[in-house]
Automatic annotation (TrEMBL):
The keyword Nucleus does not apply. Keywords: Iron, Metal-binding, Oxidoreductase. The keyword Oxidoreductase applies. Fe cation binds at H151, H214, H449. This is Unnamed protein product. Belongs to the carotenoid oxygenase family. InterPro entries: Carotenoid_Oase (IPR004294). GO terms for molecular function: carotenoid dioxygenase activity; metal ion binding. Binds 1 Fe(2+) ion per subunit. Its cofactor is Fe(2+). One of its GO terms (biological process) is carotene catabolic process.
Amino acid sequence: MVSPLKVFMGMLRTMALMLSSFLGFVVRPIRRISTANTNILYHDGRVLATMETGPPMRVYLPSLSTVGWFTGSSAEGEPPDETMGPSIGGPGIEGFHNEMTTAHTGELLLFHSTFIFPFVHYSIISSGCAGKHGSYLNQPVPGFTSGKMMHDFGVSRKHTIMLDVPLSMDPTNITHNKPAIEYDPHGRTRFGVFPRYCPPQIQWYETDPCCIFHTVNSWDESVPWGTRVHMLVCRMNSAAPIYHMGDLDAPAEANHENPECRLYYYQFPADKSSTITEQWALSAIPFEFPHVPRHIEMTAARFVYGCSMSEGNFATRQKSSVKIDCLVKIDVRHLLQVAEAHPPTQITGCVDQRSINEILATNDANDPIQVFALPYGWYAQECSFVPRKDGISEDDGWLVTYVFDESQLDANGNAPATSRSELWIIDARNMRDIVARVLLPQRVPYGMHGDWFSEEQILNQREVAEFRSLD
């Protein structure tokens, strides 16, 4: 994951450039600062790399050649298109900040979180800039009162869910020797739910303070009096990791006596009342970097996949790299049925209270939580699910992930140039069998997100007129 400190310092440098431009000291245009190195996705014939500090960057597969910035209707380096539509961003400061994008559907949904009022904007880009609703760009999301550290949001078929955690962001604080990020342990976490095409109808729900970097899945349920919205997230009770990713010491108020990062379930009411209907953990095991098979996102998917560890926690206060030695498959449907029969305590409750080592010890093929444990000294990264063609069950397919054997590290813990990672293909049905191991030509460093692209997607990429170069 990208260091928030680097993000904030980049924003600060950009603000200084803008101010200098207005004062007449700088006449050249401001360059985009995004490194586009956090996530990668496929939309409308384009493979797009994203990060919070700028618009998506189009890359071409399988060569990984850089095409150019994608601004909503086209990318730099593409052939001219007479039907080119509108773009995210625009002239001036406000337009620049609307390019600061996180994108997580023939539709591509994005939010733009900044430290300038109204703080959060929202865009929808349809395939070919067409479709029933067309493109819906740079719409303000009401209800935010300050800049926030936001990394993700929730999307169901009919609704969008914004996250407002008590983690404020203001890079200008650095000029006053104050932290750019501040966590308020006495603040509230809020969820803003609105119909996909209508942010002004947002309904806010408050709960205890927590941090959420990644949502897992969101889906709608029709009932006689309206539509319930369900949401799964990776919920932390500690803000320490956000400081540690920037190589900063976390203040005391950001730590928690018993840090945890769990798969949490939220249910928002159909009658639009102001109280969250259900909120508790499905499992007590550490759970982060989640994955839902792409073809069943935004539905009541039975299984979700993610990363875990046999020791430690994603919410730990220690400044050490996350070591993922377990991949997990959780039967959400089963655990929700258990919760319906035996409701957990709101907020603090947990459906399955076993540790990951207790689950491993059962070795039960029918356990609602299945764990693939890597050999000692081997560590994985975020996984992706690849469905079997004509599969007969939701989990009929494979998990793919990069793994690394740390016995290759030298005495100082550094990876020599000769070290190599592997791509492992794991049977998702039993979470035990390694179907194939592909030795890679080099090491793939830990961190960031990943995705799987099919041969059909690669063969159907949009045409490129010119690739970027270092010249």
